[in-house]
Amino acid sequence: KSIYNPINIAYREYVNRRINPKYLSKKPPEPPITEKEFLELQVFHWRIDFGHIILNGGFDVIVVNPPYGDSVFTSTQIDIFKCLGFKTLKESSDDGGSKNGASVFIEKSSRLLNKYGYFSFIIQNSIARVKQFEKIRLFLLNDVNLIEIVDEGKAFKEVTLEMVTLFYNKQKTA
């Protein structure tokens, strides 16, 4: 048993209501996300584990080398991110959005930073040119202060993709 068990029930209900506002009005309610699906998501509760940091404005620095690719998240997880207001996700076949995990991590990190916080992220260099990253590029240009993009080339021996490192801070300069 996890310390999250009582919280997971309430959070699953919250997510189900966000996905389908009429969810609880049905008798019996048919949840968009079942308990089994929710447990498979292995939800991490930022507000519980890092609530004191979030209440004090967020993290000073976030450094990330996350998993990336279109298969990082399930379609259920993508639906949850959309309901939680992630704006860089793919909505249609050609809208410049992405199902790539990198987009979610970049956008989530900006939410976790304090207003003067800094972010560094290593990612495949296709973020700079591929259509599926158009929304995240606009996010980086319009919503944060993009400081630098460093071309890392082939940064890791086992990884065939060429990489770049993004640096930004949350405070957008005029």
Question: How would you sum up this structure, described in words?
Answer:
This protein is α+β, with helices and mostly antiparallel strands and 174 residues long. Helices cover 35% and strands 20% of the residues. It has helices spanning 5-19, 35-41, 46-49, 51-55, 75-83, 101-112, 134-142; strands spanning 59-64, 113-124, 145-153, 163-169. It has a 4-stranded mixed sheet with strand order 1-2-4-3. It is globular. The protein starts with a helix and ends in a 5-residue tail after the last strand. The model has no long low-confidence stretch (mean pLDDT 80).
Would you kindly provide a brief summary of this structure?
The chain is of the alpha+beta class and 174 residues long. It has helices at 5-19, 35-41, 46-49, 51-55, 75-83, 101-112, 134-142, and strands at 59-64, 113-124, 145-153, 163-169. A 4-stranded mixed β-sheet has the order 1-2-4-3.
